[in-house]
Write a structure and sequence with these properties.
Among the domains are: 79 residues, 2-Layer Sandwich (Uridine Diphospho-n-acetylenolpyruvylglucosamine Reductase, domain 2), CATH 3.30.43; 31 residues, no CATH class; 103 residues, Uridine Diphospho-n-acetylenolpyruvylglucosamine Reductase, domain 1 (Alpha-Beta Complex). Helices cover 23% and strands 26% of the residues. The protein contains eight helices and 21 strands. The strands form six sheets. Strands 1-2-3-6-4 form a five-stranded mixed beta sheet, covered by helices on one side. A five-stranded antiparallel beta sheet has the order 7-8-13-11-12, with no helix packed on it. Helix 4 crosses helix 5. The N terminus is likely disordered. Bound molecules: flavin-adenine dinucleotide. Flavin-adenine dinucleotide binds next to strand 4, strand 9, strand 13 and strand 14.
Length: 371
């Protein structure tokens, strides 16, 4: 059995990336809650979204606990609010009203089933740190998902995935505040209606605020090496029987090579989902483009590579104003300095329209447009 661990730390080590200077205060009416509510007025969120879009929130509520969440919701009363984790999958507008920044910390081995260890994690924990921590503790299973930016609480929202593994493959349950029933609920994996970059949390936006995620990591581990990039990297390193840590390191090397570091060049990772077409449509495309990368799906449909379609449409390395299509990976749009959200959407729409015209394939945006 792995070392029993419990590192509940209630946010003491977390550093807010937003500007919390002069206008920060604790709200007196909430002084009697276990987690007195903190409100930051006119918070600058440019550092709290990885595209680096300019955004100011009227009121930002850092959320460190379930009690803190309830107090903040009470404070917002019936006014609309936005839930934010690491801001790595959002396109923010220039102004927002109430923003709840999820910063609930804590990782603990919470139990076990016959086949798996259960690890319960606070929504505010950083995803990649969690991956490395599980590996250090001898709990493999998340290694293919190394170096995905963002928070644990957002991971179920788009069912994060990379290199042949999706969160849904490793998820036991999600604990969330349900705005409809006004109750704290637990959704088991099958309740989450996971699909490719999709879940109930995307399908019913605004309904659930995720406070904790429970992962199930199989006691019997199998390396997932379906993706050629990972297998090739390991071969280059001379590794024939990789451990989970070897795979994590390989994924980190590959991602560092391929993707821009958002701290240096603003981006949200893949800007478009890989489109799925039916067999008939694919056959007509393949007749014209025999080299088109394609991935047959279990239901007979075919997944295409959005990056390839964009590259073939001539956009790789091109820019419009302050936004570019990354020269090493056409699927990534980058902030060339002072991009506005309109600039980003302008380039994205031009790409969608060209791909539609050339291939009769509709690209769908991956990041969430926050209004
Ligand atoms: C360089 C780069 C590479 C990336 N690579 C991948 C990849 O390989 N695979 C992949 O799947 N994604 C990838 N992404 C996208 C992104 O990292 C993930 O979608 C991540 O899960 C977003 O986490 P976040 O905390 O930043 O969410 P945010 O951007 O803050 O929020 C995203 C959405 O989730 C909602 N949300 C956030 N927290 C909660 C919560 N606690 N409860 C309810 N709703 C919430 C928000 O309201 C918003 O709608 C990449 C992004 C970047 C910048």
């Amino acid at each position: 059995m792995p070392t029993l661990v419990d590192t509940e730390k209630n946010g003491l080590n977390s550093k807010p990336p937003y500007n919390c200077g002069m206008n920060e205060h604790s709200h007196p009416t909430c002084a009697d809650t276990t987690d007195a509510i903190r409100i930051i007025e006119q918070a600058d969120l440019k550092q709290l979204n990885t595209f680096g879009l300019p955004c100011v929130a009227d009121r930002l509520y850092p959320i460190h606990s379930v009690e803190g969440l309830q107090a903040a919701l009470k404070q917002c009363a019936n006014a609309p609010f936005t839930v934010l984790g690491g801001g790595s999958n959002v396109l923010l507008p220039e102004k927002l009203g109430n923003v709840l920044h999820m910063d609930i910390m804590g990782r603990a081995l919470a139990g076990e089933t016959d086949d798996a260890w259960l690890v319960r994690v606070g929504a505010g924990e950083e995803w990649h740190s969690l991956v490395r921590w599980t590996l250090e503790k001898g709990l493999p299973g998340l290694e293919n998902l190394s170096l995905i930016p963002g928070s644990v609480g957002a991971a179920p929202v788009q069912n994060i995935g990379a290199y042949g593994v999706e969160l849904a493959d490793r998820l036991h349950s999600v604990e969330a505040w349900d705005q409809h029933t006004q109750q704290h609920v637990t959704l088991m994996r099958d309740d989450c209606t996971f699909a490719y970059r999709d879940s109930i949390f995307k399908q019913q936006p605004g309904r659930y605020i995720i406070t904790h995620v429970v992962l199930q990591l199989a006691k019997t581990w199998h390396a997932q090496l379906r993706y050629r990039d990972v297998a090739d990297d390991l071969t280059t390193q001379g590794i024939t029987t990789p451990t989970a840590l070897n795979i994590s390191n390989a994924v980190i090397r590959i991602r560092t090579r391929k993707l821009p570091d958002w701290r240096e060049i603003g981006n949200v990772g893949s800007f478009f989902k890989n489109p799925v077409v039916d067999a008939e449509h694919f056959a007509s495309l393949a007749a014209q483009h025999p080299n088109m990368p394609h991935y047959p799906q279990a239901d007979g449909s075919i997944k295409l590579a959005a990056g390839w379609l964009i590259e073939q449409s001539g956009w790789k390395g091109q820019s419009r104003g302050q936004v570019g299509c990354y020269d090493k990976q056409a699927l990534v749009l980058v902030n060339l300095g002072n991009a506005s959200r309109d600039d980003v959407l302008g380039l994205a729409n031009a790409i969608v329209s060209d791909v539609q015209q050339k291939f009769r394939v509709q690209l769908e945006r991956e990041p969430v447009l926050i209004n």
